[in-house]
């Protein structure tokens, strides 16, 4: 406490109550003004804790240089002290600019003091009041001052200054620098801790963001696995049903057809032979329907998704009757549609081809996929004996109430076209049979307002399925 009172006396200059000593009063007032200015600089320097140790160190050195109008100022920390503080030292030259400690323009005595402080020996320099008291070496050099920087009772560094010939250092200057040095170490420690806290906070925030991203990715993976499991179960069941249909129902239908043919060959009654011929044709159609169903069960969903042109090419060669020749023609540049829309168009094409083969007894069918500017048109034309007007009438009747389900295929095609925002039309084909056409806008569109265009809408090639 005695040292604090001594510094207060030095700072205020109040040691006598004699107002008649005007010269001393003026000198005291000037010291007080300088002290107030210095304390203001010191306070502004020390509040820069949050800007980082580097900014704080420079602000402290500049405050010391400004108060003393010093030519050279050194701020240095001893090796091992305040390990998180950086920079460890700073040298200000005559113009107040920062100078590299290894610069050849740095005076030898400045370099010597810097090395001594960094090695931990700087505070052992003797001056008038004993080692390290921070008083100017007035007896030998009134233009040199070094003040130790204390932290928790230990010396962790020094502030060292040299002034020009016209600026002598007095006890007030030493007191100002002691105040500055006394707060600098704590401010540096707080600044280093603040920087460390901000760094740790940033790392924690980054880890939290990474964890949230990983959790989201994990959730997406879990969802994908759930969907994959569900799809695997469904695919397994579809394949099982397809195998059962192929190995049992289809074989039974084929056997029935063979038995009918055997019986027909042994009957001489023409009327009975015609009936058996009809039964044989029905079994043939049943087999084709079963094959179509088996194909659909084996080719369901988006797994290994193909483009619509590729699916149509495959459809034209797989599970089609051997007596129906199918040609696929692609016009324009293909555009990928939503999976549901492409599946619907694929089903429409399959149903139309089946009707062309089974009902219209066509020999040739042409599947055309035309990609236009804002519209996609799928058409299936055949050379069968179907009547467009008869098919359209059958569709109207089926849409109103197809009680026996005999025209369900027509209704399904119309519904598929409507669900994807398209229209279905049935016309006379250039080959002489029926042309089933579905137009779909390439831009998003809602369902058509009318369920069926009864004037020119339907879907199949020969007789209605």
Could you characterize the architecture of this molecule?
The termini are far apart. The protein is of the alpha+beta class and 465 residues long. Helix 1 packs across helix 5. It is 52% helix and 16% strand. It has helices at residues 2-12, 22-46, 53-68, 108-118, 171-266, 270-298, 308-315, 339-358, 388-401, 408-419, and strands at residues 70-77, 89-92, 98-99, 126-127, 130-131, 144-151, 154-163, 325-331, 364-371, 375-382, 423-428, 434-441.
Layout of helices and strands, plus pairs?
Elements: H1 2-12, H2 22-46, H3 53-68, E1 70-77, E2 89-92, E3 98-99, H4 108-118, E4 126-127, E5 130-131, E6 144-151, E7 154-163, H5 171-266, H6 270-298, H7 308-315, E8 325-331, H8 339-358, E9 364-371, E10 375-382, H9 388-401, H10 408-419, E11 423-428, E12 434-441
Parallel strand pairs: 8-9
Antiparallel strand pairs: 1-2, 1-7, 2-3, 4-5, 6-7, 9-10, 10-12, 11-12
SSE string, helices as H and strands as E: HHHEEEHEEEEHHHEHEEHHEE
Estimate what percentage of residues fall within beta strands.
15-25%
Distance between the termini: 111 Å
Query: What is the oligomer described by this structure?
Result: single chain
Range of helix content? 40-55%
Figure out the total of helices: 10
DSSP strand count: 12
Q: Low-confidence runs (pLDDT<50, min 5 residues)? A: 123-139, 445-465
Could you say which overall geometry the principal axes of the C-alpha atoms support?
rod-shaped
Q: Main β-sheet, in a few words? A: 5 strands, antiparallel
Strand neighbour order, sheet with most strands: 3-2-1-7-6
Output mean pLDDT. 76
- Rg calc: 50 Å
Q: Structural class from helices and strands?
A: alpha+beta
